[in-house]
Amino acid sequence: MHPFTREHEELRNAIRQFLQKEIVPHVEEWEQSRRVPREILHKMGNLGYFGLNIAEEYGGGGDNPLAEAVLHEELGRINASGFANTVGVHVGIAMRPVYRFGTEEQKQKYVIPGVAGEKIGALAITEPGAGSDVAAVRTKAVRDADHYVLSGNKIFITNGVYADFYVVAAKTAPEAGHRGMSLFLVDRDTPGFYVQRQLDKVGNHASDTAELFFEDCRIPAGQRLGEENRGFYLVMQNFQWERLMIALQTLGTAQASLDLAVDYAKTRQQFGGPLTQFQVIRHRLVDMAVEVEKARRLTYHALDLYARGIDAVTETSMAKLTATETACLVADMALQIHGGYGYMNEYPIQRAWRDMRVTRIYGGTSEIMKEIIAKRMGLVP
Ligand SMILES: Cc1cc2nc3c(=O)[nH]c(=O)nc-3n(C[C@H](O)[C@H](O)[C@H](O)COP(=O)(O)OP(=O)(O)OC[C@H]3O[C@@H](n4cnc5c(N)ncnc54)[C@H](O)[C@@H]3O)c2cc1C
Question: Tell me, what CATH number does 66's domain have?
């Protein structure tokens, strides 16, 4: 059972063909250059791939979370997580809150060009002192007549170097804790906003990750996203789709790792035959297939609930936890089956192994997923 219709499967085929033709041949080059070229994002926008879950009046194809889910799963399937992160952050977590919580003016300014791939977004919440503890954000936004003045810094921001707009979490009432946070839209060229540096990561190299800095950065009051002091709640709502998106992308890469391992085990000859002659290898591949299927069932179940508007916080957290842990486990087992070749950069399994590691950290760590589930189970005193 899965929640997709025949139209979704047709879309899946079209996206798969596009990715094979336009993305796969360039993955290594973009990994080396540490960025995704703008032209390809523009092209995807023109083809409608950034508006799969956006109303037609803003240039999209209609509100359809399952269609966007197909995009994320297929992005995962090509084992190019750096590219998938660039697209995923723009479509799934930066443009999404503007579409959901923005004013008409904000949607005209960011969603329409965002859908077209002309403007790319980033979401800036994490700070050196505020990782899992989102409420600990210290970046301040002080009201000054018809402006807000932002000061503070952000770390680990995906698309941080090359984005055109940033959805930024800042405190408007620092003494009120999580009830004193608001969201703001900051344009890249705003005076007082700086990209401090591009960070050097273990994997996901095509995705740019940056440290950002705000110093007396004045933005018009109309750039506030949503009500003042409601930002924390908007961030929490945004997390649901972000976690499903991560589950879908990692599920795709877990499947890709399994496929690579199966192909390799069938062709690699040792002791007079293919690796699949050894029962231990066959059983390992079966174990991997079972884990991927379990992650798929849970992820599709959470997605189905979400798409039907049913509270899916528990299932979404379970899906994110399971899919990311599975993707790491399966990539590791797949690399082992490749032997020494798996550790060579010319074999794609090493990329899955490196790239999947961070999925247990971003979008809420595995430990935080367990805490959310524990709360929902009534276990937290
Ligand atoms: C490549 C990359 C891209 C990212 N992209 C973005 C982005 O675009 N925008 C953005 O805002 N952020 C982004 N992040 C930040 C990411 O969401 C955080 O790294 C993550 O939330 C964890 O925060 P932290 O790194 O400060 O770890 P910490 O919160 O310091 O956690 C350290 C360890 O302690 C554990 N821990 C913390 N609290 C608890 C608890 N209550 N119970 C049990 N264990 C706990 C954690 O699980 C972890 O194992 C990105 C990070 C990376 C690495």
Answer: 1.10.540.10
